[in-house]
Give the backbone structure.
Amino acid sequence: MSTPPFELRGGTIALGKVPVLSGIDLTINDGEFLVILGSNGSGKTTLVRALLGLIPLAQGELTLFGTPLGRFREWSRVGYVPQRFSATAGVPVSVEEVVLSGRVSVARRFRGYGKDDREAAREALEAVQLAGRIHDPVDELSMGQQQRVLIARALAGGPDVLVLDEPLAGVDQERQGNFAMTLSELNRSGRTVVLVAHELGVLQSLVSRAVQLGDGRIGYDGPPLDEHFHIEHIHHHPGIEAALPNLPPEAR
Ligand code: ADP
């Protein structure tokens, strides 16, 4: 059994001074297809960003592939697809250029992209069914398509782990199904897949493990359950929460 891609022990993650999550023990094993579930504001994005070293831990220890975060250098093994497409600020960038940017840690720097890089980019775009759009400006694509371009960018680097934050948000039902199958194939071909989702939906029969966040901690960790198929939308109102700090979460 190879080293777990992520191992977090006694993790407390705070945004500003407010702990969003505490007492987090989470080992993500090689080859898993794991979904992090929870209602809006439960801390899914926060957890994922902490696992990637993008938010410092207030407490606890994190290792990536067995190496403590501070000494970890093999970032090309980790592909990350953030929640939203960061704007290209009016610069017309092609789909291919975005995907090729995922090769930077692999490509020989200063020599530009080579044939291997372009092949990897094309394969990654095929995996997300966008090969036909390779030369189009990325801002001409729909949000769902742009999301898939970001996934292709992460795939192009040939990562061992793929971490995706809400990749299914704003994607229509049919494409969700296709996309879930694509992720499942990537997982079967040996990649660890960690995905943030509001609820399981189309992923129900595909994932091996569900981790559900609630009340600032891990409330469930195990095989996906029927109740994870659809999770009630809870809208948090930080202003109201701040004004009523003593109410139990279920009363808010
Ligand atoms: P999820 O991904 O499950 O919707 P988030 O991780 O985005 O949840 O947010 C977790 C909590 O942290 C929420 O209560 C949210 O209001 C709060 N939060 C998010 N971003 C910030 C920030 N930059 N500063 C302070 N609090 C934040």
Notes: DSSP finds six helices and ten strands in the chain.
